[in-house]
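Researcher: Batch entry, complex prediction.
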Amino acid sequence: MAPTEAASMDKIVALCKRRGFVFQSSEIYGGLASTYDYGHYGVLLKSNVKAEWWRAVVQERDDVVALDAAILMHPRTWEASGHLEGFTDPLVQCLGKCKKRWREDHLREAAITAVGAEGPGEGDGPPLELRCPECGGELSEPRQFNLMFETHMGPVADEGSVVYLRPETAQGIFVNFKNVLQFARKKPPFGIAQVGKAFRNEITPGNFIFRTREFEQMEIEYFVPPDDAPKWHMHWMEERMGWYERLGIRPDGLRLREHGPEELSHYSSATSDIEYQFPMGWSELEGIANRGDFDLTQHQNVSAEKLDYVDTATGERYVPYVIEPSAGADRAMLAFLVDAYDEEEVEGRRRTLLRLNPRLAPVKVAVLPLVNREGMPELARDLYEDLRGRMPAEYDAGGSIGKRYRRQDEIGTPWGVTVDGQTLEDNTVTLRDRDTLDQTRIAIEELAPELERRLAVA
Ligand code: ATP
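Model: Structure tokens for the complex:
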């Protein structure tokens, strides 16, 4: 079965719980809606996603540096960025039976898609009448709802102590532009990359970890001379599409969608979304925007600090334009899970597996004694202890060998090593491939270099 045919969101959620990737948050209290906790394999998988991002955007380039800014920022940041005024979604509430709240823009998009599918062109016919998708009830007038979480700094909760949990990591980068320019000795074109938590009081969170109120972003602000912005925008679209593909997402499950004029933010001259075909349909994975000089100019105006760049060679002074590839770590992890999920029948037995790229897999190799006697567990344990310093490994001696392999398949472990009777005689083990189920015999001393070689080319 092709991966996304097999993967419904329910199956992904069930596997994530069964194998300890992701749990409902605060479950013993009935759970907190749309909030999730990451268990062992979830932590390892998401951390591999982030590590691959760091590798691609910082380690394998010399024009991007790292930053880790605080979540709490000076409140004027959000005045300058426009979030206080404009980071809102149109909220409508059902006036009928169910009283549910919806994002009006989402309902409108869905209605336009439905009408579009039936034929009439845009602008034809009377304006769309939106109804509650749940119960068909009438909807309230839209109200602009600010998505920023507010809290207070210090012991007195008054107006002067209001601070916000950042709704994006990007602003931490803009306010550090000058520091990086001076102390990291960079000049345009150069970028600043950051990974961290962001918070949005979303009206309609949902689809598991796709849209939550607390999530992690992986963002780059790439500063360029204004005339070069279109070229660099193209560069980052290609780079980022390539990243998802290299890590195993099927190319036909990915697409770049350019925003139409009505969809563009006021500061953006061009934005394209990388979308993935999730079980609920094509949805945004990452946005890549040409933000012009909007952010630096705004911060310059509000802070009264100069945030321009002076080219010492030409004497030219300008505020750089910014290209922003902005991705979600949780969303990326969900896409990798969905794409890797597969079910198949092998010799009359059904198996579920995650065909994760080995670089992303939480565990790279499992070492299993065939049976729990004749010195096999001791040998397997020694082998595991040798391997675990070189790559994430697991030792498992509990239950039948078939059951242990099924467990490793479900967490996406690409290689399994079995210590059996022959190992005691000639120091070889069987090496099993998760995807093809091929089993080959290999000498113990060749095992680690062989696995390292396979990982390096994955
Ligand atoms: P959407 O249209 O889905 O609300 P957005 O266009 O507002 O997303 P951006 O502000 O461009 O999103 O954020 C950049 C990236 O951060 C998104 O592409 C997504 O991967 C991630 N992201 C944004 N909001 C959430 C959320 N509520 N939960 C999880 N990830 C998110």
